[in-house]
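The protein record reproduced below.
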Amino acid sequence: MPTPSRLLALALVAFVIVVATAAAATTRQPFKVTSTLDGKSVLPLRMHWLAYPKLRPSKVASVDFLIDGKVRWVEHHAPYNYASDDHGRNLGFLITTWLTAGPHRFTVRATDTIGRKSTDSVVARVLPAANPPPALGGMWTRVVTAADLKKSDPKFGGGPPAGSWKLVFDRVGAWHLDPLGSGVVNQYVARPGVIHLYAPIAMAPEGIGVTRFGHNGIGPQDCTPAGPFGTYRWTVSVGKLTLKAIHELCGQRRAIWEGVWKRVR
């Protein structure tokens, strides 16, 4: 017959097992989620970032995309892709030019319809973004007219507003800032005489945007979250920047960009 001390020891062992099992149950994720960043140690300046919750889409309430612990995008519809939530019609991009060069933590957090959450994280190094050519860098302004707006494409919705626009080239991107106090920033690469424009840069959840250059709610879309990409010829002479579209499928952006800009600073 076990002695009292032996019974106490057995009870303590059983208690420890129960506590350990309960702790494991509370830390174990209720379902798995992965992302296209898994296994990457260095990120390009532009890539698609998709999350894959191991659930039927009808069971997924939302997917948050966090960078360094801060929510930067929220998706509610599959495929769950950073910078677009339009059922996969136009996949936006994770463009990292706005982040400092070096390591950052990228996390996807999926929430199911009963409130359970699962996460997947990776620490990856971000590459440095290039500064614009000195002649191009800085802020420019021009008046977008009704004639300019005729270049807009109805398939992308309404045209941009007429009025005084600003255009800023910096390390983050090419910012075009509208007369209403908002705007869009695109990734670009500038070479002598040519600017290659890529997709809008998403830095905050849709509907919030970022604040820069005195403008608020600068968002992640021109024509679509995926662009389309464009190319412009540029020249600078006596404080004036002339932009001419070489290849541009986003009529709204062409309506804003194409013309003569005056340097502000």
